[in-house]
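Below is a filled-in request sheet from our internal design queue. Each sheet records the structural input a requester submitted and the sequence that came back. We keep these sheets so that new team members can see what a complete request looks like end to end.

REQUESTER: design group, bay 2
PRIORITY: normal
MODE: inverse folding
CHAIN LENGTH: 192
BACKBONE (tokenized):
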């Protein structure tokens, strides 16, 4: 893979919030993503993360009810049942001597990229009812929910853009139902 190809993958692997619910994501497909993510760097190599896969329809619906999409759905209407993901990954940590926060980010983006290669899209969700999900999935008492990820087949178009004079919002939706997401330009992220 060339650097250009990798850059294209990163640019393509955008957050999606609308899915094709009818396109089932198997538990095995999700396991493959986690099998990739278990190889990433980890502070002190403690490897504090564990993954709970959710593909059962009733559990998926219950997890969905514990989420907040796009900070209050500023980008459009809530996904209909037909547009909801039918697979979730709950990333949890077990107690460790150092914060697992960076590990979570590395693992989550690795899953996102692996999902893109496998033909899926994801959304990382931090605005979630952790207590409810913990209870619902009967997670081990010593685990802490770090992040939730949806996995599914894309049900919307996403366009990646640069911030500029006409582009100041982090993300927005146009009447054609395309979700736009803007990133800072290279010159604006380099300092010194
Ligand atoms: C740590 C983290 C938490 C997030 N939590 C939510 C969330 O609760 N709800 C949501 O709709 N999107 C959530 N997102 C997705 C971001 O809104 C998304 O990454 C951002 O809009 C940029 O889009 P992009 O991922 O396509 O670059 C989260 C992303 C990250 C990294």
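RETURNED SEQUENCE:
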């Amino acid at each position: 893979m060339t650097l250009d190809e990798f850059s294209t993958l990163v640019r393509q692997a955008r957050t999606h919030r609308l899915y094709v619910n009818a396109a089932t994501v198997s538990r095995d497909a999700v396991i493959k993503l986690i099998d990739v993510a278990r190889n990433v760097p980890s502070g002190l190599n403690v490897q504090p993360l564990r993954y709970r896969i959710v593909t059962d329809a009733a559990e998926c619906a219950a997890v969905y009810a514990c989420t907040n999409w796009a900070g209050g759905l500023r980008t459009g209407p809530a996904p209909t049942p037909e547009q909801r993901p039918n697979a979730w990954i709950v990333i949890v940590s077990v107690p460790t001597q150092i914060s697992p926060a960076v590990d979570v980010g590395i693992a989550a983006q690795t899953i996102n990229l692996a999902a893109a290669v496998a033909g899926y899209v994801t959304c990382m969700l931090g605005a979630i009812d952790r207590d409810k999900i913990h209870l619902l999935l009967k997670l081990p008492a010593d685990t802490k929910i770090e992040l939730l990820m949806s996995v599914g087949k894309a049900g919307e178009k996403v366009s990646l853009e640069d911030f500029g004079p006409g582009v100041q919002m982090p993300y927005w939706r146009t009447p054609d139902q395309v979700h736009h997401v803007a990133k800072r330009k290279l010159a604006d992220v380099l300092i010194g």
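SHEET NOTES:
- The beta strands are 49-54, 87-93, 121-125, 144-152, 158-162, 171-173, 179-183.
- The chain has seven helices and seven strands.
FILED BY: M.R.
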